[in-house]
Amino acid sequence: MTGSLLRALAGHAGTAPGRAALVTSGRRLSYRELYREAAAVASGLARRGVGRGALVGVHGEKSAAAVTALLGVLLAGAAYVPLDPSAPAARRRGLVGDAGLAAVLGSRTRLPRLTAELGPVPLLAVEDLVEEHGAEPFTPVEVGPEDLAYVLYTSGSTGRPKGVCIPHRALDAFFAGVGPLLEIGPESVCLNTSALHFDVSVVDLLLPLLHGATVHLGPALPLPALLLDLIERERVTHLAAVGSTLTLLAQQGDGLTGRRLGALRRIMTGAEVLNPATVQSWLAAAEQVRVVNGYGPTEATCLVVAQPIAEREPGRTAHYPIGRPLPGVTVAFRSPDGTVTEHGPGELLIAGDQLMTGYLNRPEEQAAAFLEVAGVRHYRTGDLGERGPDGVIAFAGRADDEVKIRGYRINLNEVRGSVESHPAVAQAFVAAAPDERDGLALACVVRLRPGAEADQAGLAAHVAGALPRYMVPREFVLVPEFPALSTGKPDTVRLRELVGA
């Protein structure tokens, strides 16, 4: 058996069988129970001919069944593909077809609905697989470093989501690089706030299980009061959340004042530009906590650069740098003229074992995503930055049409294409505008076809039928004509002003 996570799970089940591994609103699984149920899922897949090299969908999140399914897929030697239950059915159906899934795992209660949604793909209930497994032991399937562990779909510029293929080699390199920063151990109590289809789940679900910690699954929606109560009640030591969620928690009610947060040791954050005031609120409320600001694309297994923050600076307004590369990660910078340097400024290029194998069934996009530098394969992030004299990297925004909202990477062209697929829409412009709740939110300027009618609610409903909720613009501004430059091209400056971007 290869893969540090699988070896560790087997070890915890043997040496600390009674320790709590996973806690949800309805169940509490020990490491022995979690491993036994995951092995049952793996055995059930094997009996149906699903094993090494296969891709298996996992539908659902924030449940013991979903986590059991995910781990069972890995024990079977296959790779898991999370299917967002909150996304439109058409999007899930498209991912199933694009990935060529061998099967989809879901809860027993959801199978009838999934059967109608997903078509002929084999659907298996996690509960059935667990119940049908007998007393016979299951031997995990041997996989190699380049065998896939998971495929996560991200927003794509062509209007089709891209499947990011992460092998066991990359997952193991990530665990080795980030582990010393977070110092998670068997005594740690970790809060999972991320969804399974979001790469942060590698940090707040898989990494704690690797180290034998107890993981509490937070609510599917990041309801501030519930999360803060859970952190206090369970004496959470480790929390991972995107910056907007941390801000939401810090601003709940009277803020963090009076909250009992003395158990907190590490807060892992990133995926968005970090609000200094939010960081200082957490540092002031939890005397022993250290905030780790991280950076990294899904294509490089979530996190490649990090900056621990411990300094109490109540009046700080300057943005934090994203930090130094993790061990085994190399970061270079490509200037607009194509010159690659060690310090930049320019586009961040990433090399190392944490890189994806490539995009599933996207050879052209995959070729464009990589660059050979001195014989070494680098991933082109599309992010801008530079390295200071002290070796610390500062982030300087995007070089293309992608933004991050609540940690999710969104290609604005994909959203625009969805809006323009509405029969009443002639032209659309999408931008990210400041938002009090999430830091940024999508807003859209729309020009309707002559004689056509549409309103904000109808446009939002149309987009929501094709894209996940986090990709639906919060505001639609209808205009008779787009402002234009003397060349006839749309005036993007004035368009952005229309939505306050």
UniProtKB/TrEMBL annotation:
Domain spans labelled AMP-binding enzyme C-terminal: 420-489
Residue span, AMP-dependent synthetase/ligase domain: 12-360
GO CC term (a single one): cytoplasm
InterPro entries per record: AA_adenyl_dom, AMP-bd_C, AMP-bd_C_sf, AMP-binding, AMP-binding_CS, AMP-dep_synth/lig_dom, ANL_N_sf
Coiled-coil regions, chain positions: none
GO molecular function annotations of the record: phosphopantetheine binding
UniProt-listed GO biological process terms: amino acid activation for nonribosomal peptide biosynthetic process; secondary metabolite biosynthetic process
SUPFAM superfamilies attached to this UniProt entry: Acetyl-CoA synthetase-like (SSF56801)
Alphabetical list of Pfam families matching this protein: AMP-binding, AMP-binding_C
Protein name: Amino acid adenylation domain-containing protein
Native organism: Kitasatospora gansuensis
